[in-house]
Amino acid sequence: MNQNHQINYTKEEKSFDSIRSLKLTNFRSHENLSFLLSGKPLSIVGQNAVGKTNILEAISLLSPGRGLRNSNLNDLSNTKNMNGWGVKAKIISNNETIDISTGMREGSTGREVKINEKKVSGSSHLPKIFSLYWLTPSMDQIFLESPSYRRRFIDRLCSIYKHNHISHIRQYERLMRERNQFLKSNIQDEKWLDKIEYQMARESIPIAINRIDLVDELNKLLDCSVDSVWPKASLKINGLVENLISSWNPEKAEKEVSIILRRNRGKDFLSKRTNEGIHRGDLEVFEKNKNIAAYKSSTGEQKGLLLSIIITHLELVSNKTSRYPVLLLDEVVAHLDEVRRASLFKKIFDSGAQVIMTGTDLTLFDEFKNIFDIFILNMGKLKEV
Description:
By secondary structure, the chain is of the alpha/beta class. The protein is 40% helix and 22% strand. α5 packs across α7 (250-263).
């Protein structure tokens, strides 16, 4: 590393959640893989297609949803053994050791989740005891994709900051599916629609408040940053309900959302779907110093903006809560120049969070092996460097 970019790594002792053991059974390319982790940042290095991302995907399923690839859960079994799949981890959360396992049996319709060997009803319990998020190569296009990609991104960040966020979203989506099914039936039942729309409006408000609060907190930290290594991001959440909340109190905004849903029934019946609501919001990102929208920035600047948001969110969670989420970075380091790579590693270490990275080039991590755990993945086996 260039002497001008040398970093002095000093770490304030912090208490943070971490994975201490992981076992994969019949999961994608891994028939039976298990290993121990120290809690320090971890790099998994290996050639392409040896199963590095599969390990990160398995870890990502320790949270609600379908993981970092958004895959069909029925497609995760090892092709040599289609008898379902399983992921088991031992974690430390708030200084308590907890066993988490999830998986699917052959022929089942949903995945099973157990906490300390006791089955729980769904994965919505997981963020209360363990939180994580990720950055993958497919997310590099987030500023060019449709708003739904950016909504999922901000909502996952919200779910770590506000543990009730996912529950409100799932309840809203369930209500919207019921309303859409009703719209497709062409049955006219004003009282039933009034009830559903009232509930949708009620669920919309905390979702909007959580998004606005998170964006405000992130912008405060981003504005205070004097780090010139990363482009300075500025965020704005834009949508019907978010805009109402920004102007009115929650009670008035909730009533207005109900009125708008009722007023839209005519066009919604024609299109057979709900055209306006919290499900249509969008996260807008700008490069503040250049005053241009992220989608107009270069590919390198877009990647920098995204990493800047992720790093700032990690700092925010560290400052606001006693829990530090596990961060999964898939093939991120290889695409950074030396200065940004060094800055990223320092921020990772300073945060106190456990970060699990993948890469193909061992030399990118070599000089940091005194503060990182490094494993080589080859032929389905992990070997510590």
